[in-house]
Amino acid sequence: MNKYLFKYEKTGNARFIGHLDLLRAFGRAVSRAGLPIAYSEGFNPHRLVSFALPLPVGMSGLGEIAALRMAEPVEPRECAGALNACLPEGLRVLAGREMPREEKEPAALVRFADFRADFADFSVLESVERAVGAVLAANSLLLERESKKGVLSFEARQDIYDIYAKGSSVFARVSQGSAVNLRFDALIARVCRDAGAEPDKIKCARLALYKEADGGAEEIF
Amino acid sequence: MDYSGILDGILGQVQKPARYVGGEVNIVRKPWDAGLLRFGIAFPDVYEVGMSHLGLQIIYGLLNEREDTLCERFFAPWTDMEGAMRRAGLPLLSLESAAPAGAFDILGFTLQYELGATNLINMLDLAGLPVFAAERGEGAPLVCVGGPCAVNPEPLAEIADFFYIGEGEVSLGRVIETYRETKGRPKRDVLRELAEIDGIYVPRFYDARYKENGEIERFAPNEPGVPEKIKRVYAEDLNAAYFPERPVVPIVEAVHDRVSLELFRGCIRGCRFCQAGYIYRPARERGAGLLLEQARAQLANTGHEEVSLLSLSTSDYTEFERLSASLLEFCAPRQVSLSLPSLRVDSFYMELLERLQATRKSSVTFAPEAGSQKLRDAINKGITESDILNGAKMAIESGVTRLKLYFMAGLPTETDEDLEEIAELARKLLSASPVRGISIGISAACFVPKPHTPFQWEAQASPAEFIRKHSLVKAKIRDRRVKYSYHDGKTAEVEGALARGDRRAGRAIVAAWRRGARFDGWNDMFNYEIWRAAFEENGLDIGFYAARERRAEEILPWAHIETGVSAAFLSRERERAYNRLLTPNCREKCAGCGIDNCVVKKAAFSGGQPGHPVLTRRRV
Question: Disulfide-capable partner of B423 in B91, B216, B291, B476 (CB 3.0 to 4.6 Å)?
Fold first, then answer.
């Protein structure tokens, strides 16, 4: 099948690249690297590059996953090196591995993700810690998100598996994927509101993507 | 000062933030403090538009190849970003080093469209610079304006320090060297030295005096020794000209996001309405072998998925068959698609269409420009009704179901009957169609007379006249298979006023900018009321610049700019338009336009065949 998974990070200025632009940037890097990428059939063939899950624009990704289908077998470690010589600034492949035939597409596997929010304003840390504790202790948590019809509120508590403050950061494991996708920025906005912190000054990162395994979470890559 | 923290803080508030961060593949970053000349190349529109422009990539690559220069890019921030920048006190920053525009030695703007002028001014203001050259101090960067609009520099004469008239490859090197040699001397002295370079126009060394009726009475240097006339410069040999083999790869999808091959500059056709057909003379080709090499190198260095051929009339390229065949051979196995704009529809074209596997064209575009043969002859379009009908028939037989037709309203000598023939042509196309189910889209632009063309003296139709003209055509179209759309005559009026404006018109541009005009070339952003008020406020009449026919003896505001095409020739061509006489293309017979050492005249071009409909894939 010649399918390979690559774990990559999207940091710095690359955080601002949107999903479709990222797809194009990755595809072009593959071509510049001279990798034997496979193409789709049809009138407008495109490179078979896909991502596990879009990352919100502006957020860093430290353990993102791309799936590449090649026209012939390749050595994934060499590919990673070749790609890194060709990717735009802020995108870096960390590791690559072959995808076994029976493994599902990463996009179909993602159920959870770990996130981190870094607070630059240390004066709010104590109240942030309290707000985080309150989230964990609550049975219900209504979050808000903006939609075309205005601000919608939704129940999010069952999609937060863990949340804790450590140092100047908040860590959380929440539902992610095509079925249920909890917006981490909405969760952090709520924590900020409760803690009296300013959400604009916080930097968020998605750390790792997980699938469901034996009732628990297991890293996809 | 490091602005990246502030920038980072506001990027979360704006659309498409990647427009503002740089970091693309093939950018060049050089040490900021190594004593290099700092050149900012500025494009007065958003990133996606600017990054589509080959000229910008050429200048960027050309200057960065020099060891004594660093060149970084600036684009116009969209209105949301402008607001965020102003609130945060963030100046206009370069994409490479996030360095403020005010810290550069030279800011070089390329102005592709008259209505980009307010963005240019806005970028100067965002840089923290006074918009008028006279108010910028000794430490401020020199502001240069180039691009096609510089062939009438006068509306921006009080804003720019100097203009670059012509093609960047020729004199930019000397500009850099002269600047380096004179650095540290008073700005006036630096500009005086720059004025010695071919193609450089320093407006402060010239004065205009006006008559009571508003016409120019006298235009002359106020500084001894500067040239009375400024000659446009052009690269004589495109095979020797610099070409960027590692263009910057846009990170936000550009309007034209692909490898561009410049087949030639200039055009042999001489359509009388077309400014590009005159200001880029003579037509100069680049060899097919070199183009293939450039395509290979660019594809390898960018990873682009498409190659596009760039020219004013692709079919006129001498080695077109060889080039397209070799390109297809190279591109097809690499999953790279080939796009061929500005082609004549003929049997070779149809054959090519079939071979382009990726092309399932459902529509073909023709640009007859005028509805009647009489008017097409007047504008020297050189195609006949049967060319159009045959071309359309061939296209339809190959499976095309939609025809797009481009016209202009308001052309010189146009009558209502000429306009009505637009509808008639659509009717003929439908009745001549070999199959049913064909639809036709007609798009009519408003003709704007441009400097340095045979129609530079002509009156431009007023917005009200344009409405009448468009309504006339619309009323004649009864078939539901034909859709008619047209451009706005108000935008055309302002475009016309700026295109043929004089030095005083610049005040109106600044006033319009102060009143909030931005991105005037974008339909939904253009605000006519602002422009009316801006002209009025300065005691100027838009109609004086746009609508008025110029007397033949009048000193035109751009008379001191010499493109190489003589005024006598333009005047002759205007006369021929009135007599509906066709002027043969440059390869068939030299029309004596005045270009010195013309390569078309010298080289025995193998003749293209005139008289085929021109097929264009119009840019968005």
Answer: B476
